[in-house]
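Lecture 7 notes: from sequence to structure.

We start with a single chain of 171 residues. Read the sequence below before looking at the structure.
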Amino acid sequence: MGASQNGGSSPPQSGGEVARAKPETERGTPDAPSRRSPEKIARARELRHGDNQAEAALWNELKAKGLGGYKFVRQMSIGSYFADFACRSQRLIVELDGSQHAESSYDRQRDKFMRDEGYSVLRFWNVDALKNMRSVCETILAALEGRLAEDVAAADLRFVFAARKTRDSAL
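Now the structure, written as tokens:
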């Protein structure tokens, strides 16, 4: 079939349809295993669709690289835990907590696990995300930019710092 028969510069056709490249998500073998289990994917989706106004408000600030150009994801699984928000490139977890988390030994254990995995953890109260969003975002930026570099424990904020490993320190 020559160029004059298929209408000029149209792409070649097979079976009456234009051949198209598969989207990136469909490339490779159809049975390629996912890095995450179906159970963790389902749990993360469930958590994302929960009814938490504070998380929804903070997500509006963080999504689409809206805060300083840093990419965040929601409900990322780390071990058996799920982080409310995570910036993988800077290894920062941001958690929003309700009053049930006050002095929680479970949260301290969770924070230790996250630090051992190389993530710093910032914890704010839900009410602060709703009433003081600007301060919350400025504090997140300070952590992302390395201006917070030690543990902080205050009435309205908890920061568990995980020092980043460099190539020199790994040698």
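The radius of gyration is 22 Å. Keep this in mind for problem set 3.
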